[in-house]
Amino acid sequence: MSANTALAEKYRNNFLKEIEEQVEMGDWVKMCMQCGVCSGSCPTNFQSAWEHPPQELFMMIRAGKREEVLTTTSMWNCTSCYNCIVRCPRKLPITHIMHGIAEYAHRLGKAPKMQPTRFFSGLFWKNCTHTGRVNELKLSMGLYFKDGFGAGIKEGMKMKDVAIGLLKAKRLNPFELLGGHKCKDQKGIQAMLKKAYEIERSRKAAKMAG
Amino acid sequence: MAKHEYAFYPGCSSQKGASASNYLTSVESMCKTLDVKLTEIPDWNCCGASIGYAEAGELPRHVMNARNFALSEKNLPGQEIVATCAACWLGARETRERLTHSDTLMADTREALKEAGLTINEMPEIRHMVEVLIEDLGFDEMKKHVVRPLEGVKIAGYVGCQTNRPFGVAGESFENPVYLDKMVEMVGAESIPEYDMKVTCCGGALAFSEPEKAQAQIKDIVESAYDHGAEMIVTPCPLCQANVEIYQGQINQRYGTKFNIPVMYYSQLMVVAYGGSAKDAALNGQVIKARRLEEIAAKPVKG
Questions:
Q1: Mean pLDDT per 10-residue run, chain A (210 residues)?
Q2: Whether residue A125 is found in the same domain as residue A161
Q3: What is the per-residue pLDDT across B43-95, written as a single tens digit (0 to 9) for each?
Q4: Mean pLDDT in chain A?
Q5: B127 has which bridge partners?
Q6: Interacting residues of B62 by C-beta distance below 8 A, sequence separation 6+
Q7: Residue A136 lies in a domain
Q8: Which chain B residue's Cα is nearest to A131?
């Protein structure tokens, strides 16, 4: 049984409880009073990007719309500007809830595969944890070449002028491709992260069993 | 001994050849004048930034920041951690807050840190460089060192998001923080308090993944600066700086605008006003050259 099926079975008819137990800051969702300040404060909401702005997602969670919530592109439009957090009259940590739902959807394999920010988010985390520090050049290249070699060259060409500007200003180093900045104790970082994932998984499993 | 000493967390973008290397150069010059000693936390790692959320999870994200706390405690005991990058500062502060509020998270973090031979006994204070300047030194002290005021230069103070929300600088409002305008005035330039895009989001990481969305926001930020007669924009955040500066050419193509406005760090303005050279202020690190500042930096110092 896939993780998704197992969790859907366990929390059948109670998606709110599933979000509360499995999603970071998910226990705040029930506090939403549907005022809509978050949606009105979101910079990407004004570009007809959001299928469902935050307050709508919160109501959908309460209404048990599991499939619609986990498969929407909405959470992935978050720019982490924290405007919703500071304006929410009920003090919901909305930015973190959005990231939390996105992470959960990604973990269950429900998130839209080709959503570019979902892709970039995963790429960023892998990039920075690989050596302990971000390799900006590999990060950009990884994004441009996500749809294959031909598309990568095309994307790269679009960014040519931006890259030349940065090269001239010595803010882009082509030799980063050969290695670049890194932490000394990469082994320690990997071991520490492996342990952190183990602990987090076991905590979530315990909640599900309990 | 220096007047003020801190454990320094420069962050990935400040490294040599990286997108905010000019920020670091100017901060180093600025700190020399102000007698602030920054000691880099040995072997510090990435904060994970907000955008790592898809795979970071909760504990792994906090463990990354906690490793820096542990390294700081071990090598620079008793010193507060200072970050220059908004995202580093925010990520570290958030971890500090979460670990302080949850014994379980703290215990789990300690268990994971053990794998790297580290531990945390005391939670460090996490400060942004502008907090150090405003709270530990103060505007009077900062102003004392101005020997070459940036007279007649009109500058839009673009605070952005993550230096302002959700934590921000104490005593400032989220909707209209004024410290950056005060810093502009402090270096002898003209501020634009009515600049209405000062806390608008630049799109953050979406500038990479969904450029059309981010660039729509950047366009508003730059346009408003022009509308208010600004000659340049100043910001405390590395991603704001890069996003607002380097995509102006693409925005011009997309919208038919003719944007070409320099985007500076507060530290660069201060270094020039403190009598530093263009090199000290890393003006050569601008993609859109700040000609006016280069001219001022070439002038002899007053007095």
A1: 89 94 97 96 79 95 97 95 97 98 97 94 96 94 90 91 94 90 97 98 91
A2: yes
A3: 999 999 999 999 999 999 999 999 999 999 999 999 999 999 999 999 999 99
A4: 94
A5: B82
A6: B95, B98, B99, B105, B109
A7: yes
A8: B45
Contact B197, B118 (CB under 8 A): no
Interface of B with A in 84-143 (CB under 8 A): 108-109, 111-118
Q: Which residues, numbered 2 to 61 in chain A, qualify as contacts with chain B under a Cβ-Cβ cut-off of 8 Å?
A: 24, 43-44, 47, 49
List of residues 6+ apart from B257 with CB closer than 8 A: B219, B222, B223, B251
Chain A positions touching B259 (Cβ under 8 A) are none
pLDDT, tens digit, for every residue of A20-66? Answer: 999 999 999 999 999 999 999 999 877 766 799 999 999 999 999 99
Domain end residue (candidates: B81, B96, B129): B129
Report the candidate in A116, A134, A128 with the shortest Cα–Cα distance to residue A173. Answer: A134
Residue among B9, B25, B26, B53 with most chain A CBs within 10 A, to mutate: B53
- Name the helix (H) or strand (E) containing A13: none
Could you give the strand order of the β-sheet that contains B4-9, starting from the edge strand earlier in sequence?
Answer: B36-40, B4-9, B81-83, B126-128
Residue B225 belongs to domain spanning: 148-298
Distance from CA of A55 to the nearest CA of B (A): 19
Contacts of A202 (CB under 8 A, 6+ apart): none
Distance from CA of B303 to the nearest CA of A (A): 33
Q: What is the pTM of this model?
A: 0.96
Secondary structure (DSSP) of B156-196? EE---STTTSSS-STT--SSS--HHHHHHHHTT-EE-TT-T
Whichever domain contains B25, its CATH number is: 1.20.1050.140
Same domain, B40 and B120: yes
Burial (Cβ within 10 Å: 0-12, 13-18, ≥19) of residue A127: buried
Buried b (16+ CB within 10 A) or exposed e, B12-32: bbbbebbbbbbbbbbbbbbbe
B 172-201 residues with CB below 8 A of A?
174, 200-201
- pLDDT score at A50: 78
> In 3D, which of B173, B170, B162 has the Cα closest to residue B91?
B162
Give me the amino acid identity at A12.
R
Element housing A19 (H / E): helix A15-22
Which amino acid, A8?
A: A
Q: What SS3 class is residue A57?
A: helix
Residues B124, B153: one domain? no
Q: Contact A77/B217, CB-based, under 8 Å?
A: no
In CATH, what number is assigned to the domain containing residue B193? Answer: 3.40.50.11810
Ramachandran angles phi, psi of B81, nearest 5°? -90, 130
**8 A C-beta contact, residue B63 and residue B50:** no
